[in-house]
Amino acid sequence: MITASHTLTLLAAIIMFAGVATLVWLALALVARLAPRASLAMACANAMAALSLTLHMLRGMRPDALTYWTGDVAAVASFALLAAAVSAITTRRLAWKSGAIVVAAAALLLLAVPYEGDLRWQARVVNLAGAGLSLGAGLTAWRSLSASATGRRTPAPLSLPLFLIGALLLVRAFETLVHPGGTPDMRVPTEFNIAFLWTALVLTLLQNATLAFLVLMRLILRIERLLERDPLTDTLNRRAFDHALDHAHAWLGRGRGYALVMIDMDRFKQLNDTLGHAAGDAALRQMVKELQPCVREVDRFGRLGGEEFCVLLPDTDIAGAALVAERMRALVEQTPLRWLEQDWPLSASLGIAEAERGDADANTVLARADAALYRAKSQGRNVVQP
């Protein structure tokens, strides 16, 4: 036999877990500094959920103005904060405005509806608003996790708990049409409320665990990025570029060719000696920035050392590489370095090479591109040579 103690115990369990989750997310945000904005939003989401359920349990024992309207608004706010946290974790952008609008609209609607009778309309407002926010967050997470910026795939089904939470809230809103008298009060010992609370507890555990996993994955990807990136220009370092080049060469035997564009900034030593190494670093960063529009998502842009860079162009022949290299040369030339109130002209020499089936390894192609770069330097610089 289901008694009131069963529903109260489940409510207390959810509140306790939400409280513990609040402390854990606060520690991640303030102590570990792991995705601090997202972790702080998750801490607030769990705190709001705990507050809402606590006020729900106190209905009839504390002033109605506190336990009813405030508790319902806190419930909607918890879903808005959850959506903001999901956005910050998966897209690295704290999208809070749409959630704030939903919370404000729900608060006004709840003020307009008197808290009398069976409270079915209040339940519909809270559950439909929460369902909309959860499903929206699920769609955002699904799209973002399908393909990351690094080309790696993160399992999109990790967003499934958000869809399940949204579906659960839709079911509860629909239940107000079937049994309007008992559904709004989760303390009422009905089979539906017991099933709802058990499901809510499981989904709360699952959602917090999933988002914590995504935060840790984000940290791992950040560490991996630091290991394969040049700290000055954020291009691939030599080790990472060589790995990408070897991978491209392995596909050469399967009919997928590639080309290389070697880039060397002209008169870099003179720039360093005249303006200083800080200016040289700024010049390299500026050149990389100017060249980025020429680099496709499938291309690999790496720094080989000093002022020498290389771009790997998959599925590109020598003619295509020449077009890309000429555009790069023009972009570097047209923007001088502005340093200490003076302009320093920049230019680059470029050598191009196309992989051939007879090439034993990627170093052979790289050596041809380097030889072409040497010819460009010897012919007066600021030119492209095949």
UniProtKB/TrEMBL annotation:
GGDEF domain segment(s): 256-386
Gene3D superfamilies per record: 3.30.70.270
Highest rank taxon of the organism: Bacteria
Pfam families: GGDEF
Entry's EC annotation: 2.7.7.65
Key words, A-Z: Membrane, Transmembrane, Transmembrane helix
InterPro entries: Diguanylate_Cyclase (IPR050469), GGDEF_dom (IPR000160), Nucleotide_cyclase (IPR029787), Rev_trsase/Diguanyl_cyclase (IPR043128)
Record-annotated membrane-spanning stretches: 6-28, 40-59, 65-87, 94-115, 121-142, 154-174, 194-221
EC class: transferase
Matching SMART domains: GGDEF
Signal peptide as annotated in the record: none
Reaction(s) the record says it catalyses: 2 GTP = 3',3'-c-di-GMP + 2 diphosphate
Protein name: diguanylate cyclase
